């Protein structure tokens, strides 16, 4: 491979910036543009060296700290040089230009991590975790992606692969060698093992939506009939007067958004126009937009006021996760609140004016969206690619179980084919058999210096 160079720190002014070089000519390049007082080997593995950097005319223009990582004990698995110097864009641009003149080329987005993958330093799941960790919006998201980067999900996938390979060996022994009756407990043992594999896959898939929300944020729609307290609730949860409120129905005609954090997850609250039949063109458009937001949401807060009858149509607003919220509890007696709790045991009874019931509402939201802490032992799939491939693996496992449960002789030849397909899917998740197009798609989303 050739030698690449890029800035590894964010662009702009700062105390320090880092330029990273990776490839076989890394050491030669830094020797050509720097000078140090050391007479012997200037750059030792994992040692820092103070140098002066020189331009093409041999004139010093900067001092920097050089750190050398000898292959294969580096991030990319190649010889890597990191130049730490003053965080001035003009200085950094000069350093990168000199590196290119003396033998390097500008790195493509994600090329350092791609080389780490190609050189066997990380698998594809860990490579995807690098990008997710960089772009995580919360501490929870960063912590979860750190677990992925250090191989928690990869270990689960490799354990599944080992289990499937063991099953496949027993079944193909039966097909190729055994002339006697079936091995004792072959079918029952295989079914039991496949059931355990299916449980592991299911737990990984179940958390995918939660991981997506941790990394990208969640959308929560506040909906209901006009004047049920949607805007007041938005203001209460966000802590600011984001939406205009008033006693007149239909104050909100368009969507109003506010951002909060729930259990470490960034959440966008969306206040919407009241749901009702109207001849007013603007109000009708507002209702259409409300329904679109509901369809795109991760969770819906369906509001009904405590001072009006509650009907089923007010609650059946979404097929997705929905929390029934009874508002205006400040207008109710304790007896009426108890009555609501008995009639609607799953509802959250609140007053946005007094903040009564708000902590319980936030807990209910967290539960309905399936959010979990990064400290949880659950290790879910983190990307859509991983989810899609793992679903294919699950289908192969299900087909294998059905074939083994077939009355009469089990269809071992077909079971063998399904298990081989499942193994192939696991290899694709780990990046063992990924095409160049897939790899380019994954790494192109990275920043240049990573």
Automatic annotation (TrEMBL):
Give start and end of each TrmE-type G domain: 217-370
**InterPro entries the UniProt entry points to:** G_TrmE (IPR031168), GTP-bd (IPR006073), GTP-bd_TrmE_N (IPR018948), GTPase_MnmE (IPR004520), MnmE_dom2 (IPR027368), MnmE_helical (IPR025867), P-loop_NTPase (IPR027417), Small_GTP-bd (IPR005225)
User: Which lineage ranks, top first, belong to the organism behind this chain?
Assistant: unclassified sequences, metagenomes, ecological metagenomes
Q: Kindly state which keywords UniProt assigns to this record, in alphabetical order.
A: GTP-binding, Nucleotide-binding, tRNA processing
Question: Could you tell me which PROSITE patterns the record lists for this protein?
Answer: G_TRME
Name the chain's protein. TrmE-type G domain-containing protein
Keyword tRNA processing among UniProt keywords: yes
Q: Where are the transmembrane segments?
A: none
Q: Could you state one GO biological process linked to this protein?
A: tRNA wobble uridine modification
Provide a GO CC annotation, any one.
cytoplasm
Q: Could you say which protein family the record assigns here? A: Belongs to the TRAFAC class TrmE-Era-EngA-EngB-Septin-like GTPase superfamily. TrmE GTPase family.
Named from the GO MF annotations, one term is: GTPase activity
């Amino acid at each position: 491979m050739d030698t690449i160079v890029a800035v590894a720190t964010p662009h702009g002014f700062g105390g320090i910036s880092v330029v990273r070089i990776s490839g076989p000519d890394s050491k030669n390049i830094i020797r050509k543009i720097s000078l140090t007082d050391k007479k012997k080997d200037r750059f030792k593995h994992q040692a820092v060296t103070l140098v002066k950097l020189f331009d093409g005319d041999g004139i010093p223009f900067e001092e920097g700290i050089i750190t050398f990582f000898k292959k294969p004990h580096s991030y990319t698995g190649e010889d890597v040089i990191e130049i730490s110097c003053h965080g001035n864009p003009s200085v950094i641009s000069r350093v990168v230009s000199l590196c290119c003149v003396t033998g390097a080329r500008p790195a493509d987005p994600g090329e350092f991590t791609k080389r780490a993958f190609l050189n066997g330093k990380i698998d594809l799941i860990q490579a995807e975790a690098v990008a997710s960790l960089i772009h995580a919006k919360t501490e929870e998201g960063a912590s979860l992606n750190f677990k992925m980067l250090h191989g928690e999900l990869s270990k689960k996938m490799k354990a599944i692969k080992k289990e499937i390979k063991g099953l496949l060996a027993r079944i193909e022994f039966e097909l190729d060698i055994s002339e006697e009756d079936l091995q004792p407990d072959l079918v029952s043992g295989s079914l039991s093992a496949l059931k355990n594999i299916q449980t592991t896959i299911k737990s990984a898939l179940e958390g995918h939506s939660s991981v997506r929300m941790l990394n990208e944020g969640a959308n929560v729609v506040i909906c209901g009939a006009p004047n049920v307290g949607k805007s007041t609730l938005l203001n209460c949860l966000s802590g600011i007067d984001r939406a205009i409120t008033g006693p007149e129905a239909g104050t909100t005609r368009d969507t109003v958004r506010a951002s909060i954090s729930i259990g470490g997850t960034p959440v966008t609250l969306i206040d919407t126009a009241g749901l009702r039949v109207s001849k007013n063109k603007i109000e009708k458009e507002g209702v259409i937009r409300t329904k679109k937001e509901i369809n795109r949401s991760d969770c819906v807060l369906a509001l009904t006021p405590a001072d009006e009858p509650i009907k089923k149509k007010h609650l059946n607003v979404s097929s997705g996760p929905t929390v029934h919220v009874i508002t205006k509890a400040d207008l109710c007696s304790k007896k009426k609140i108890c009555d609501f709790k008995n009639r609607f045991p799953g509802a959250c009874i609140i007053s946005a004016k007094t903040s009564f019931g708000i902590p319980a509402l936030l807990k209910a939201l967290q539960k309905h969206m399936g959010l979990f802490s990064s400290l949880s032992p659950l290790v879910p799939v983190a990307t859509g690619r991983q989810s899609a491939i793992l679903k294919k693996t699950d289908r192969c496992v299900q087909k294998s179980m059905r074939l083994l449960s077939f009355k009469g002789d089990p269809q071992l030849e077909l079971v063998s084919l399904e298990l081989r397909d499942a193994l192939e899917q696991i290899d694709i998740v780990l990046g063992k058999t990924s095409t160049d197009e897939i790899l380019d798609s994954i790494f192109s989303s990275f920043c240049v210096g990573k």
